[in-house]
Amino acid sequence: METGAREWLLPAFRGLGGALFGAEATLMLGVGASLGSTWLLGQAIDGTLPLGPAALAYLAAVGLSAGCTWFARVRIEEVAQQAMLRVKERLFAHVMDHDVALHDEQGAGRLISRVTGDVEAMRALLSEAVLQAPADLALALGLLLILGWVAPSMALVAIASLPAYILLLIVYRRAAPQRLVAAREIAARVSGFYAEHVRALPLLRAFGRLPWLEARSAALSAEKARIDVAAGMTGVHLFNALFAVRSLTLAGMVWVGASQVHQGLLSIGTLLVALDYARKLFEPFIRLQFNLATFERARAGAVRVSELFARPRKVRAPADPQPWPGFQELVLQDIEFAYVEAVPVLRRVSLRLEPGRRVALVGPTGGGKSTIVQLLLRFIDPDQGRVQINGLDLRRLDPEVLRRHIGLVSQGVHLLPGTVAENIGARSDGDALRLLAEVGLAGVLAPGDAIGEGNRVLSRGEAQLVCVARALAGDPELLVLDEATAAMDPDTEARVSELTRRRSVLAIAHRLRLVADYDEIHVVAAGQIVESGDHASLLARGGVYAGLWQAQLASGA
Q1: CATH architecture of the domain with range 3-310
Q2: How is domain 330-415+458-555 classified at the CATH fold level?
Q3: Where along the chain do its domains lie?
Q4: What are the backbone angles phi and psi of residue 481, rounded to the nearest 5°?
Q5: Distance from C-alpha of 489 to C-alpha of 297, rounded to nearest angstrom
Q6: Which of 121, 9, 53, 98 is nearest to 380 (CA)?
Q7: Which residue in 501, 462, 485 sits closest to 409, CA to CA?
Q8: Could you tell me if 353 and 330 are in contact, meaning their C-beta atoms sit under 8 angstroms apart?
Q9: Going edge to edge, which strands form the sheet with 505-508?
Q10: What is the mean pLDDT of the chain?
Q11: Is it the case that residue 455 has pLDDT exceeding 70?
């Protein structure tokens, strides 16, 4: 396993050592019983042991071997499942606690593939190969020793075939990795493609893009089939080659053994014992062939999981977070920020937010307004400059504590399957009813109404109002509205606007009439605040804001 993987894989087995040791010991006992059953069969055939007792002993050995193997493999599977469950839980927590940038870059499909598919590949390797490898090694060594004792000449034939097996495995080991890694990558791409496009199916239908989606899907599926066939055929060729070597080896042993039986140098029972031992000798190699593909998939998965664990977080809670200082003044001072190096999004931005005031950010799309919101919520940290609350840098606060005091309503509507109360996050049904009444949904929705996944379907405006109620549930000291009323009718917009009058608000808006009565309006363009003031003063200036206002009046926006 990769060195980086040990840091998160080995701790997953903490506390499972006893169960694993018991399973391995039981598996070894099964190997010994399997070796003994073949020896008893040979003794019975040669008449060395009475037939009745030998048959009973043989049945007992076979039963013991089967029972031990069954019990051990069940326990090994349980150990592997428990260990990988811990890895999944840790990886999921890592992904959920990571920077927002990770989710933007990786996408839902790729991250789901890491948490589920890659970890599952490692579970298969652990349960089918790694944890059973000691028993396979003991079986191979035991068989060679016994075969060398009972039929040295036949043992030499078996040993002579081992280089061919090793050569085939080396060839496969060199040819398979790239093809198997490519198969995992295309699987992640397909998962991500369908996760993103199925969600956008209504939009694609509305614009008549289903033929385009079908063509893209067919092309991606054809590429996946081609890569999967190439990866699969590598294993098929190795499997056939291994069986060919095995068949030739057994034929050689039959020829040598039959000659020695004819010459009186070997008994028939010993010949049959030697052939059965030789057959069992090849079983670990056959299993290894099957597990090589599993190994490559697991290795590729371990590399990707290690990369995900190793990806540093840019936004971290401080080691000694300061307590929440209250909201008296929130200041952005000389902020500079770039998502991509040398491509600045914000340049020398300074902004002040005070309690009880409503402040709006307006301006052309792509000017940096939403980036300012991400800085306030500490989804990102500035490259230069500081964001301070009451003179305290936000990096001195626990981000979770900060976000509990800021309510966010974004343009995107995100509701999860469950009840209305669960989506709002209210402490009780009474609180949920109060919040629903506050946003004008009393009598329209009840706290226990189920939404999503085949339950009640809300209009976009209703869903956005539920999001507003969610933002108000924690009684935040600052309410951030990022195009929050874009899907609302004028009456609902007016209701939400009335709710904001009693709060400290930072709003991003493209429709200027929605923020015309705000205390302060800042025009953000090309990463800078180019104008600031109230509605009347900005119109009197005749600058960017006045131009936007006249353009929206002319268009009726």
Answers
A1: Up-down Bundle (1.20)
A2: Rossmann fold (3.40.50)
A3: 3-310, 330-415+458-555
A4: -115, 110
A5: 52
A6: 98
A7: 485
A8: yes
A9: 406-409, 478-482, 505-508, 358-362, 520-525, 528-533
A10: 82
A11: no
Identify whether the C-beta of residue 103 lies closer than 8 Å to the C-beta of residue 282: no
Q: Please give the structure tokens belonging to residue 375.
A: 């800085």
The tokens 């981000």 sit on which residue?
399
Residue 73 phi/psi, 5-degree rounding, is -70, -35
Helix axes 133-150, 268-310, angle to 10 degrees: 160
Please answer whether residues 92 and 115 qualify as being in contact, where contact means their C-beta atoms are separated by less than 8 angstroms.
yes
* Banded pLDDT at 490 (limits 50, 70, 90): confident
- In the chain, the largest separation of any two C-alpha atoms, in whole Å, equals 118
Does the pTM surpass 0.85? The reply is no
Cα four-point dihedral sign 55, 57, 61, 67: positive
Are the folds of 3-310 and 330-415+458-555 the same?
no
Q: Which residues have CB under 8 Å from 317's CB, separation 6+?
A: 398, 399, 400
Q: Are 326 and 404 in contact (CB under 8 A)?
A: no
Contacts of residues 61-65 at CB distance under 8 Å and 24 or more positions apart, as own/partner, are 61/33, 61/34, 61/36, 61/37, 62/33, 62/37, 64/29, 64/30, 64/33, 65/30, 65/31, 65/33, 65/34, 65/37
| Token digits of residue 294 | 């599993």
Q: At what angle do helices 460-473 and 490-500 cross, to 10 degrees?
A: 10
The residues, any chain, with a CB within 8 Å of residue 364's CB and separated by 6 or more, are 525
In tens, the pLDDT along 183-196 reads 877 887 887 788 77
